[in-house]
Amino acid sequence: MTAPLGGEGMTMDEYKKNEILVCGHLNPDTDSVAAAIAYADLKSKIAEGDYVACRAGKISAETKWVLERFSLASPRLLTDVSPQLGDMEIRRVRGIGRDLSVRGAWTIMHNNDISTLPIVDDERHLIGLISLKDLAMGFMDSFSSHALIVSDTSFRSIASTLKGDVILGDPDAVMKGGRIHVAAGDTEMIKEVIKPGDLVITSNREDAQIAAVEGGARCVVVTTFADISEEVKALAAMKQCVLISTSYDTYKTSYYINQSVPIGHYMNGESFTSFTLETSVEEVLSVMSRTRHSYFPVLDGDGKYYGLVSKRNMLGRRRKRLILVDHNERSQCVSGWEEADIEEIIDHHRVGGIQTISPIFFRNQPLGSTCTIIYQMYEEHGVDVPKDVAGAMLCGIVSDTLMFRSPTCTPTDREAAESLARIAGVDVEETAKAMFEAGEELSDTSAEELLHRDYKIFSSYDTRIGVSQSMFFSPHAMTEARALADEAISTVRARDDVKYYYYLLTDIEDRSSVVLCAGEGAEELLREAFPSAGGDEIRLPGVVSRKKQFLPALIEALRRRAEE
User: Fold this and answer.
1) What percent of the chain has pLDDT over 70?
2) pTM over 0.90
3) From CA 174, how far away is CA 152, in angstroms rounded?
4) N or C, which end of the chain has less CB nearby within 10 Å?
C-alpha cells in the first residue's frame, strides 16, 4: 500500500469517458423504461461507446411486472446528471498503512510530487490523512528522545528507516519506555547513563556494545555495518536485547532514527474532509473555497478510499453524455440536464423547449409509442431485437396505446407490436391483460406514489400544469385509486409547485376518463377545455390520451385566455 496505482486496467475515470446514458422522463412509465433498455441495446451494436439504460425515477408496479416477466434488470437509477467527482480526473494514489514510517511517507510524497497521502486500513477504509505539514512536525520531533517510545515504533521500521537489518530479536516488537542515547565516552559512563529499556546507538567499539547490553538496553543499533562479535550476540540473546546493524554513521543514524516513527502517530484522523464519487462538483468547489487543504480524499460507492482530488482537477471536469428517450421537455428531464451534453433525442411527443449547444440527432414521429420508433431503427440497421428486449418493447407499445385503443395509436404501432410479440414468443392480448392487472395493484402503494406513477409537468403560456394518469380494467381498482388520490392531490400540487394539477383515471374498456383536479381555477380551466363535461363529476367520454386529447385541449383554453 505504498505506491501509486498503476497497471490495474480501466479506471472509473477512463470508463466514464465512454459512457453514454440513455434515459427516459421523470416518473417513468413502461414505454419510457422499455425504450431506454432497447435503445441502449441497439446503440451498443451500431456505435462505439458504453450505452447505459437509465431511469429517472421509481419503477411502477406495471413496469416492474414487465421487467420480471422478461427477466430484464432494472435500468440504472439516475437522479442527477450534473457533473460529479466521478466525472473528474481523480488522482489514483494508493492508500498507505498507518505503520509506514515518517521517512517512508516523505519518500512517497517526494517521488510522486504530492503533498498529502491517505491512510487506510486493510479493507481500504479511510482512517486519516498525513500532509507535508504533519511530516514537518514529525521531522522536528527528531530532536526528541521520546518520539520512538510514545509511538509504538517497531524494530522493523527502525531498521528499514536506517537502511539496515535486525540481526537479533523480534523485528515486529515495539519500543516500550526508555530513551535514545549515543554511546560516547568510556564504558563506566555508558553504564551510568543507560537505563533498562533504552535504545543505544554504538559504533564498532565492542566494549561499548557490551556495556549497553549489560546496562539493560532494549535495543542496540551498531553503525557503519561494524562487526558484531558472537560474544555480543550471545549476551544480547540472554538479555533479550534487539540488535540492529546499519550502514549509516553515528551522525546519520541519530538524525534519521526518529523518522522511523509510524505516520499513525502524526496523522490527522478526525478533522479531514472527504467526498464521494457522487458528490456534485458544485459542492466540492464550495468546500474547497473555504479551506486551505490542497488534496481531498474521495470514497467509492462502498465507502472505501478511491483516490485524491485537488482544486487543479476541477479545471478538467467533464460533462455527462445523455440521450433522451420518450421526452423532450425541460420539466420532464432528469435533474442537472442543462450541465450534460445531450447527444440524441428519440420521442413521439410534441416538441418542447430543450436547447442544445450543438446540432444533435433528433427523431420525432407522431406514433403511439417511442418503442415503435426504436423498433423501426432496429429494422433500418438490420439488427435483430433480442427476445427479452422485444417483450419489453411490446409492453411499452401496448401500455402507451392502451392496447391499441388510444387515438395516438397508428397502424405502424400495431404492426410493430405484433412483430415484437412473435420475436418474444408471447400473445399480445394475454400479455397486455396481465400487465395492466399488475399495474392496478395498489395494496402497497401510497397516495403520492400513485399520483407520481405516470406523471408529467408541462409548461405553456407561463403556466405549469401537472398531469398524472392511471389506466384501469377493473372498476374496483379505479374506485380504490380515486379514494387514495382524493387524500393527496392538493398536497402533491403544492409540493411540485404547479398552478394546476389533474389526475386522469382512465377506463380502458369504456374508453373514458374521470378527472380529479387541484389548484385555484383548475376546474374552471378544465371546463373551458371540455365544455361538454357537465355535472359534479368530470367524466370525459372518449378521452384516453393525455398527449393527443387532454393536454392539447388545456393548452388551447390557455391560449384563448391569453388572447382575451
Assistant:
1) 93
2) no
3) 5
4) C
